[in-house]
Specification:
There is one protein chain. This protein has one domain: Aminopeptidase (3-Layer(aba) Sandwich), CATH 3.40.630.30. By secondary structure, the protein is α+β, with helices and mostly antiparallel strands. The longest helix has 15 residues. 34% of the residues lie in helices and 22% in strands. The protein is built from 4 helices and 5 strands, in the order βααβββαβα. A 5-stranded mixed sheet has the order 1-2-3-4-5.
Length: 135
Amino acid sequence: MIRPFEAGDMAGLDALWRTCFPDDPPRNAAPVSVPEKLRVEPGSVLVAEDAGRIVGSIMHGYDGHRGWLWGVAVAPSHRGQGLGAALVRAAEAALAARGCLKVNLQVRKGNAAVTAFYERLGYTIEPRISMGKLL
């Protein structure tokens, strides 16, 4: 079942992200990033639950011009069953309902499996350079 994140989901979401994103910096950990994301955009974090366990997640955002997806994770035990696609489609629907016309996301260079996943969902590689700055 895909549903909005609830406060009691934090431990499960944190465990999922630690499994799926083992190299992420501490600033990206669920207990750090999710509360702030929900403060700015309530309802923007979705989870997939199976038998009381958090097995998938996605965060989405809309700045009035473009939508973004991140934090897309599916537990290894639940991969290959369409859950990732269902999470992306749920986030896309939420963004479209807000008037969003284009969705962006980032994939780490060299992650061919994830790139192929998004291509199967209709995403294309765009010639861009992603830049960032820590504040």
